[in-house]
Specification:
Layout lengths: L8 H13 L6 H9 L2 H5 L3 H17 L13 H9 L4 H16 L6 H13 L3 H4 L7
Helix pairs in contact: 1-4, 1-6, 1-7, 5-7, 6-7
Length: 138
């Protein structure tokens, strides 16, 4: 599996890509949502670059023998921890968590694999408090 510089757009996009493939299917609704949310812009990359990274990530998973189109997360725990460790910036972590939650919920059902990715993000990034922080109302 390739590694990317810490907090790079590519490292961040790989977390998004993992969420997209975590339910065992790259659905049109997920791809459409990537465009509607302008995820590529939020991560600081071009649309084509994001789609190329999604392809490259799937190739890496296939070559490592980890891509198992099933309901479980397509990477092992160590790889999942390594991917999460590439994101150190607190604001980027929150942005990614928000995007990944939206992607996981786009089909009105959070699959086991998607839940595994989201839980790993919260645990590895220490975002437990962020999940339960009340929103401010003016």
């Amino acid at each position: 599996m390739r590694s990317y510089p810490t907090n790079s757009p590519q490292a961040a996009a790989r977390i998004v890509a993992l969420t997209v493939v975590a339910d065992g299917d790259i659905g049109d609704t997920e791809i459409d949502l990537l465009g509607r949310l302008a995820v590529h812009e939020q991560l600081g990359m071009g649309r084509d670059e994001l789609h190329a990274l999604l392809d490259t990530f799937c190739e890496d998973l296939l070559s490592s023998g980890q891509l198992q189109w099933s309901d479980t997360c397509p990477v092992d725990e160590r790889t999942l921890a390594d991917l999460m460790a590439e994101i150190q910036n607190p604001e980027l972590r929150l942005t990614l968590l928000r995007l990944c939650v939206e992607l996981a919920e786009v089909d009105a059902h959070v699959h086991e694999g998607e839940s595994t990715v989201l839980t790993a993000a919260v645990e590895h990034w220490g975002l437990h408090r962020e999940m339960f922080r009340p929103t401010s109302r003016n």
